[in-house]
Specification:
- It is a single chain.
- The protein is mostly beta strands and about 200 residues long.
- It has one domain: Jelly Rolls (Sandwich), CATH 2.60.120.
- It is built from 2 helices and 12 strands.
- The strands form 2 sheets. Strands 2, 3, 4, 5, 7, 8, 10 and 11 form an 8-stranded antiparallel β-sheet that branches. A 4-stranded antiparallel β-sheet has the order 1-12-6-9, with helices on one face.
- The chain is globular.
- The termini are far apart.
């Protein structure tokens, strides 16, 4: 089994939004959850993903570092999805964010009451193996392509959120993707015999 890790490497690769049309590449912190009636969503783009087409995904998660500004006396409930496109470009606007095709696979990530770890500490997302599996099984997917993961608050509990460190604040504490996978079986060609 192999392990692939990749941290956000550019400020344009972690973006945040809320309705009706807020879009930012520089929000500091990025919020997972909601605040003041605004339901936040965010996206994380990882380039150069060294997982081959057809690999079997065994586990997948995002790891965040908490920043200041969290409120977690009620649980925070989010949907995790991926972009259902091989090698997606960076997201450039609210309309672009909203228009991206999402994976069929969805994972609900619930942060329980008191589950936010404290400023400077890490927290892992729910496992989203099925989402990465769907992406790397796309016909056009190639080793080294980029992928995007979305995190959308479900709007269940207003003003409950986790603040996370963005790339712009501390690059070494930006969102980290970890995927464990099994390489696809190698294809052995049969010899061609000419009579």
């Amino acid at each position: 089994m192999a392990t692939f890790t990749k941290r956000i490497q550019h400020g344009d690769d972690d973006v945040s939004t809320f309705l009706p049309a807020h879009f930012s590449k520089t929000d500091d912190p990025i919020l997972i959850g909601s605040m003041g009636g605004d339901i936040w969503s965010s996206a994380y783009r990882f380039p150069d993903v060294l997982i081959p087409n057809g690999a079997t995904i065994n586990s997948a998660k995002l790891t965040f570092i908490e920043d200041t500004g969290s409120a977690n006396d009620i649980e925070i409930v989010n949907d995790i999805k991926g972009e259902a496109v091989a090698d997606p470009a960076r997201i450039t606007s609210f309309a672009d964010f909203a228009g991206r095709a999402r994976t069929t696979a969805t994972v609900v990530w619930t942060i329980p009451i008191g589950g936010v770890p404290g400023v400077g500490n890490p927290i892992d997302s729910a496992d989203f193996t099925a989402i990465i599996q769907e992406i790397v099984s796309l016909g056009p997917w190639n080793l080294g392509d980029a992928l995007i993961i979305f995190c959308d608050d479900k709007g269940i509990n207003n003003s409950r959120r986790m603040a996370i460190v963005p790339y712009e604040d501390t690059p070494g504490s930006a969102c980290l993707l970890t995927v464990e996978f099994t390489e696809p079986p190698s294809v052995t060609s049969s010899p061609i015999i000419v009579w």
